[in-house]
Amino acid sequence: xxxxxxxxxxxxxxxxxxxxxxxxxxxxxxxxxxxxxxxxxxxxxxxxxxxxxxxxxxxxxxxxxxxxxxxxxxxxxxxxxxxxxxxxxxxxxxxxxxxxxxxxxxxxxxxxxxxxxxxxxxxxxxxxxxxxxxxxxxxxxxxxxxxxxxxxxxxxxxxxxxxxxxxxxxxxxxxxxxxxxxxxxxxxxxxxxxxxxxxxxxxxxxxxxxxxxxxxxxxxxxxxxxxxxxxxxxxxxxxxxxxxxxxxxxxxxxxxxxx
Length: 259
What we know:
Blueprint: E1 4-6, H1 11-14, E2 25-27, H2 37-48, E3 58-61, H3 64-74, H4 85-101, E4 105-108, H5 114-124, E5 134-142, E6 153-156, H6 177-183, H7 187-210, E7 214-221, H8 227-239, E8 245-251, H9 252-255
Parallel strand pairs: 1-2, 3-4, 5-7, 5-8, 6-7
């Protein structure tokens, strides 16, 4: 994408890039880049206080299980020294929580292939131009595959009529008009969606007022293919029309190959 990239960069060296003549720079930083989180916060303030610099912080995360597996495969030592690898990962999450709150975009890499990560980066980098009051991430999922990590709100739509039991709709998904129309053809679906939007209309402005920068909404059904996808897409479409929101949608079971 045309960025000059530097990985594992210490914060104290990062300040030298502020006055650089290079137009597009991507700095890869993690818990090894600073002794205290305050160092990163100070570095970020210097970037954001410079009117000639447009800066985004993209926070990459993954589930504990995936991180454990990655360390086991690479046999690398975790930079945070605790009695077990799992405790090191938990401690790292605690330390990096402050950085996460300052980020302009969050990407969960648990199920991503390199090509998929590139596409997500392209979307999140669009925040450079238009930073909104809050970033809302909507994710559909199937309960039989487990509830997603790091979701703020979870809504269960398994009580709605299930297109899975109709032979002509079973192979399709909530991305298909026929499935979406079927799910929303029932009064109970319309009523629940109205109540859900009413709740979000109340919650989102109060989250913004409280200073929350990221809100993740999980919509779950049995397999994560029909009802949850329908509702996730409807929420995405309606919330995207609100000017002060950055809204993203993804369908976990599609990304995992469970459809």
